[in-house]
Design brief:
The chain is α/β, with parallel strands linked by helices. The protein is 45% helix and 12% strand.
Length: 301
């Protein structure tokens, strides 16, 4: 596996954006959160993804968040920046204008809302790949975007842009599609779970790890689960998986990052604040999450 691909094997964290009581980005807590994730063994960090509430952030806030996390990371782990959209020209311009120092890769979501066909998806990602030397991880999440990057298109992009398009964050939940990608992809191409609950079975099929939401709250446990599975220690991985599975499901009941921000407040790490159109977890879900959190034995990891 090439060095560029190896950077993104294991556990990545789709980082939340902490806000203060006034709804402003809380950069102090963001720095603390960055350090806590690294100290607890995660392999890389992903900023400005879905979990970061990126559509609600201003351009200046995005730049300030990137700088904050670069400073907090201080080169200790690789850093991936979410850069996607449904206007190819705008995405290309953003990628071209981004300062690459301190950034190790790009996570680029499939264009949303306008629902391109497979050739449109191929041409979109080809245009992005043509303007950067940074490794690109595709992000397929049809439940949010309305368009699915099918296995044939993924493998075509992986083959035509080998060394640039280095992997995919797969969150379609379609195991037949996932297996087709795993079976036909180039050897070094990474297939990364975008869903906490199916990370373990994906690794068993040949996947490369996860970009995790729940790992914001349980970085050591998620990292240990993934590392154990990648080493073939499936009994240990299954033990952690089944401990976390109820929370893996609960945190997405009212959308993301609604659930994970509730967990992080319960743990005392952030204020439970989201930006509209997202709102905080309902009282019933918050109580359920609090009970599930209490049941998890974090001291062992």
């Amino acid at each position: 596996m090439s060095n560029r691909n190896y950077l993104f094997r294991g556990t990545g964290i789709a980082m939340v954006t902490p806000f203060n009581e006034r709804g402003e980005v809380d950069f102090t807590r963001l720095l603390i959160h960055t350090d806590r994730l690294i100290q607890n063994g995660v392999d890389y960090l992903v900023v400005l993804g879905t979990t970061a509430e990126t559509p609600t952030l201003s351009g200046q806030e995005k730049q300030d968040i990137i700088k904050c996390v670069i400073d907090g990371t201080a080169g200790r782990v690789p850093l991936v920046i979410g850069m996607g959209g449904n206007c190819t020209a705008d995405v290309v311009k953003s990628v071209q204008s981004m300062a690459a120092e301190g950034v190790n890769g790009i996570l680029s979501v499939a264009p949303y809302y306008n629902k391109p066909n497979q050739e449109g998806l191929y041409q979109h990602f080809s245009a992005v790949a043509a303007v950067t030397n940074l490794p690109i991880i595709l992000y397929n999440v049809p439940g949010r975007t309305g368009s699915n990057i099918n296995a044939e298109t993924v493998c075509r992009l992986a083959s035509d842009f080998e060394g640039t398009i280095v992997g995919i964050k797969e969150a379609s939940g379609d195991f037949n599609q996932i297996m087709q990608i795993l079976h036909h992809k180039p050897e070094d191409f990474l297939v990364i779970s975008g869903d906490d609950a199916i990370a373990l079975p994906m690794i068993a099929l040949g996947g490369s790890g996860i970009i995790s939401v729940l790992g914001n709250a349980y970085p050591a446990m998620v990292s240990t689960m993934v590392a154990s599975a990648l080493k073939g220690s499936m009994e240990k991985a299954r033990e952690i998986h089944y401990q976390l599975l109820p929370l893996m499901n609960a945190i997405f009941k009212e959308g993301n990052p609604t659930g994970i921000k509730a967990v992080l407040e319960i743990q005392g790490h952030i204020v439970n604040m989201l930006r509209l159109p997202l709102v905080c977890a309902s009282d019933s879900l918050y109580k359920q999450i609090k009970q599930l959190h209490k049941a998890i034995r974090t001291s062992r990891y």
